[in-house]
Design brief:
This protein is an alpha+beta fold and 358 residues long. The chain has 13 helices and ten strands.
Length: 358
Amino acid sequence: MNRVNKFELFIDANKFLCKLTIKKYFLKKGVETAVYDNKKKSFKVKSDFFPWWEKGPFLETFSKIVCQDFENLEENKVKKRVYNLTRAEQEVLKKLQTRKEWVIRAADKGGGTVIMKREYYETEARRILMDRTTYKILENDPTENFKLELGNLLEEAVNIGIITKENFDFLYPKYPLTQIFYFLPKVHKNIRSPPGRPIISGIDSLTANSSKFIDFYLQPIAQKTKSYIKDSTHILQEIESIAWHSDYKWATLDVTSLYTVIKHELGIEAIVRTLESQSTLETNKQIFLKSAIRFILENIFLGIMRICYFKLMVRPCAPGSPQIMLTSTWPIGRTHIFGVLPYGGRTWCYGEDSSMMF
């Protein structure tokens, strides 16, 4: 057993104590615990309400006993330790952790781990960012300017009743982080000099919460598009429903560099058309969503190696992020409108950059 971190234990114990205290407070008031419903999601900053006066001697004693038990466990721990790595593997792992000349990244596909020389990693990152049709070097960090623009957009929405003050506080971060650029090595293409798949991590960035807000309204509409596929079971069900004919042919598409070739106007046009034709939202909210989408896509910047870059085309997003909705599904999902399939065939989009059609 590893040595107990008493500070982390203190934090965890007090978080649990806080939950118990809040539950006690609302039970005394006769308020039942609310069941979370994603369809009624409220976008607001997490509450810091803590009724400290409700702790009482029982909860205080419980917290002290828990902390004392962990300390006793530390004192009486068994000295013999069981490892799932051999001694040699442990030594190699420790050396890798301390060697700054190496960069360790997950492989783009296959679930492997790739160890690269930092020199190669930085060279490949610069090669990707040298594409002046996609990236532009900035002289300074534009966070404050973009933050002011976002604030004006949100204030206008509050004034005309589209969002609430609580929504504003959620959508307008006080201390946003700069989005970070990195890449995943494509070892399935070249094992010695793998090209990089660019990713931008936007966690806690200026537009992170705005993307969640927009995604909440776009998801139901996206699921109604003809090309939408939920998962593998869904695609199998769709295929089974087809009355196959001998002159039908299957085809699959894999879009090369999808994230970096979608122009902002194309992505915005695809979303706006669908929003106008399929959404049941009131006109003012649709107008706000369009403005927010345009702001997000046209004010993308990132940082790497102490340099800021402006993104001229739709950004590559971290897997699983809400921004995926704004960058990939919509342009692919509009292929039946843009005339890729003029003869009445079917097309489905699956994954983030692949399509199947017949």
